[in-house]
Amino acid sequence: xxxxxxxxAAAALLSDERARKGIGWIIAxxxxxxxxxxxxxxxxxxxxxHNASVVELCFNGGTLPPDTPAEYAAYIEDMxxxxxxLDGFIEDINGMTEEEKSLDGTRVKAIFFALYFGADLSVPKxxxxxxxxxxxxxERTRTVKVKNEAGVEVEKEEKYTVAVPITDxxxxxxxxxxxxAITISDEQKANADSVYxxxxxxxxxxxxxxxxxxxxxxxxxxxxxxxxxxxxxxxxEFGYRKDPFTGKSKGHGGIxxxxxxxxxxxxxxxGRVTVAQYSSSYGYYVMIDHGGGLATLYxxxxxxxxxxxxxxxxxxxxxxxxxxxxxxxxxxxxxVRVNGERTNPRSYLP
Length: 350
Fold this sequence. Notes:
This protein is an alpha+beta fold. 32% of the residues lie in helices and 27% in strands. It has two domains: 4-119 and 181-201, no CATH class; 216-347, Glucose Permease (Domain IIA), CATH 2.70.70. Strands 5, 8, 9, 10, 11, 12, 13, 14, 15 and 16 form a ten-stranded antiparallel β-sheet that branches. The protein has a two-stranded antiparallel sheet with strand order 1-2.
């Protein structure tokens, strides 16, 4: 259950005008842990010049509005202090990684925020142990050159430890639950996804997604794979962009749609499944042949629900979204291919 003090403080931070209009929000917040976090992400003060959100204040700093209740300000300062400690341990771990596989600090802090914001401040938290839940440690051997007693340079083998970031979020959550002796709910996982995307991409994928319970199919029969509000959750466009792993300009063959892990992914058109497998880049992905040289691809899923050779209709659920493969966070990578050539999915989506 959410901390009643957090609910009370969040409500007090709203301006009078918003308070008059937002009674329904407060009632809903009492009923739903997920909406509580969304309420916390609202502006702390409509009159403040920076219009900062709780997440922005915790992740990016800034001055708290003068009317911030003392107890709520303590939650923010506690999170800032925790982030400072986490940053130090993240830096230590990244100094032990290899092959440009660094730990995603934003992911670490987003999950920490979702689990501990508004928690009892008197309960100590082991930040180093928490950070270690995101990596495995391997002992490796390398050859180095050293000088012997005679001053002659010789080769010598030595053992060293490498930190390997864990790419599967389910494993990360299992590690955290075990190491920190806590139970992690689906709501907290969804909140962590939303916070992560808000910080990294400037848009929360949890709000405004639109219902995915029913297919959203346009007049030409093309179905959005993740619902009617797909335009509001595009986190990376088709075409050239800065690669999130290397920082270099690289072609992007589809569009990324920021959705929480486990979101239903639907077939865009009727067709036959030609690929349903795992790859190091796409993770778990599905490809559907729609005939006439047209095919669609759905990547980085957490689970595949179809098999090769299976026939699907527009709107059928083919997978559940995730962050497998070469991915920086939960989202759907969606491609449209015409005679094998990747083309902008925006030209087809309803």
